[in-house]
Amino acid sequence: MFKIGFVSLVFLSAPTALDNVNLFHMEVVPHGAIQTEQVIAVDEKELDCLAKNIYHEARGEDETGRKAVAQVVLNRVASKRYPNTVCEVVYQVTKHYKTKRKTPQFSWTLDGRSDAINEKDVYVGIVELAKGILQHGVETNVAKSLLYHTTAVNPAWSKSKKIRVEATVGVHIFYAYNK
Question: What span, in angstroms and rounded, lies between the C-alpha atoms of 44 and 48?
Fold first, then answer.
C-alpha cells in the first residue's frame, strides 16, 4: 500500500509474466485493447468520518456547499496546523484560548445532541460524494481555507488579522490564513 496525500492506493497483486493481472483494474474493449483504471481504495473509517461531517455541517447545502466543507477537512489533513487524518481532524478537540474549556473544531461532535443520521436518503448521497472526494480529490473555490462558520454566527476568531475571507458558499463563510 502506498500513501499519496490523504488517499491510500491498494495494489491487489503484482504483475506476472503468466497472466494479465497488474496493478490496475483491467477491462477488455474492442480489438483486444486493454484500458486500465487505477483502483483507489478508500479507508472506510475515513469515509465515515468525512461523510458524517458533511452531513452534520452541510446537509442543507447543495453539492457545491458540501464540497466546500469537505475541502476544509482535506485542507486541514494536509496542513501542519492540524492532525493528519480525516477522523482526527473531524473529532479534534482543543482548549478554548480564554475559557480553557474543551472546544471541538466542528460543533456537532461535542454539542450534546444525538449524532444520529435521520435523513437516510440525504446521507446516502453524501456518502457517495465523500467517497468520490477521497478517491479523486475535489476542486472548489475554497482551496486554501482551513476555517469556516455559518452566516448565523460571528465567532471572535473570524475577526483575527491572521486570516482573510476566501469565499462565501451557501450559508458558510470560508477563511484562509494570510501568508
Answer: 6
Q: In the 8-state DSSP scheme, what is residue 108?
A: G
Grid coordinates of 166: 476566501
Q: What is the pLDDT of residues 5-29, one digit of tens each?
A: 443 333 333 333 333 333 333 333 4
Q: How far is 45 from 10, CA to CA, in rounded Å?
A: 16
Backbone angles phi, psi at 156, to 5 degrees: -60, -40
Compute the distance between CA of residue 6 and CA of residue 14 in angstroms, rounded to an integer: 23
Helix (H, G, I), strand (E, B) or coil at 76: helix
Q: Calculate mean pLDDT across residues 53-68.
A: 97
78: its cell numbers: 494536509
The pTM (predicted TM-score) of the whole model is: 0.77
**Dist. CA 60–CA 170, nearest whole Å:** 9
* Alpha-carbon span 61 to 6, nearest angstrom: 25
Nearest to 75 by CA among 2, 171, 167: 167
Task: Delineate the domains of the chain, giving CATH numbers in brackets.
Answer: 2-37 (no CATH), 44-177 (1.10.10.2520)
112-144: pLDDT as tens digits: 899 999 999 999 999 999 999 999 999 999 999
Among the listed residues 157, 152, 143, 146, the one whose alpha carbon sits nearest the alpha carbon of residue 171: 152
